[in-house]
User: What shape does this take?
Amino acid sequence: MRTKRIAPLLATAGLLATALPLLTATGAAAEPAPDYGARKPAWHRCSTDQPASYECATIKVPLDHQRPRGRTIDLAISRVKSENPAKRHGVLLLNPGGPGGPGLGLPLEFSAALPKEVGEKYDLIGFDPRGVGASSPITCGMTDAEQNIDRPYRPATFPSDVAWARTVADKCREKAGALLPHITTRNTARDMDVIRAALGERKISYLGYSYGTHLGAVYTQMYPDRADRFVLDSGVDPGRIWRGMFQVWATEAEPAFARWTRWTAERDAEFGLGSTPGAVSKSFWDLVARADREPVEFEGMKLTGDRIRSARPLFFTPSAAAPLIAALKAAAEGRPLPPGTAVPDAKAVFGPDRVKAAAAPAATISSSGRTTVPEPASDNGTAVFWAVVCADTDAWPRDPGQYARDAARDKAKYPLYGDMASNIKPCAFWQRPLEAATPITKRANVLTVQNEWDSQTPLVSGQGLHRALKGSRMVLARGGEGHAVYLAEPNSCVNAPVSAYLATGRLPGRDITCRTEPAPAERREALPAPSPFPNGPQRF
Assistant: This one.
């Protein structure tokens, strides 16, 4: 696989308090049942139109790991074995983020992307996490409109936002109520350990992106003696799960926006948005106000000011933001763009399906072992997203009024996205979690990786993960733009130290800060977006 194919694969119940007690995070039966580890996968070729080296299987895991001999669910796994058994070190599990991202196709992609000295060390293992894709997928029956999480706060429309949040929670409880409480990060970590046991491995190595960094961190805390070489790329701060991770989008969009105004002011002759940062900012906010009065017609869409604000990830890449904002301003004023002006795909940024689901190269494997290709429901990724972020922690406010107050406050403090980040979410009406969140307190000798200008897991989030994981090292790409770093950008300065760690198991002696020049705008436009979801930019 060419490295730029990595990017699209990485890359978003009701107010019912259960009578079940919260289990402590440390006393939650981490060890999988022995009989699950004894059930070896029945590997076979995933699909006749894929290489024979790309193998798939389905294993059974307990729905409730506290009741290991109760109901089971399917877990779809895949692998590409090391081509050099003499140099094989073990297995490398892969996760693309989400929560809700499918991972079955990752071994085939990474087998061609990894440097030879890394790839030959591992059998590459992919899996669709529980509830996702081919692993007993769930649906909440959400419409496309109900999957949109960018809801601007206004007192007049807040009741409809509350109704949306309650409707999503109710639909999820109705459609997936039996599975929903068990689709959590801790249970996915337990599934990873079942995979380890089924493969006959004493330890696993791991490469996880975005949400996958939280999943990997949780595994190191639940199974510290089974975690080998772990790379956590684009870090989720465990102290912010999960409402704080929405809110960090707003706080960190402001310095990114300020950087964009400086960059764009230096190129006023090209974009015509102002010769000072203040003038560029005024051009943008005048456009937003104008679009709120009368939506801007652009590429077959009618864009309100709120919809333009919702594109806050764009400002982390100034070379992409400036031409699009200039084009929107021209459209609002009825002016044509100069011939040859390169403008990012606005439908990918603003459209109802902002980023189409990446076509996984894996065929889906049925529990009988036959190769089939059923399509999960269109809301599968979003359903799993809410299941995890709502059931991982009981820290979500239950009072709708709290969200209204927070959204009004943050709209003033962080005007680009603050109200959308703090507005009400379905978690306000979710059933209470069955377990507490996992405390990140144990030492973990892992490598964390971060771009300086990451829109989804911003630098402060990655630094929070690094601080929480005592014993970890960080490789930081100063100047690096975009979400997901290792192999997602072939020229990134992080690639060499990450590859060295995966090949040798030796962590750097200290944190590494290197310099990466942002990719040219035309190259970045050629790169697929980093998320496998509809409405992809707003995921972890």
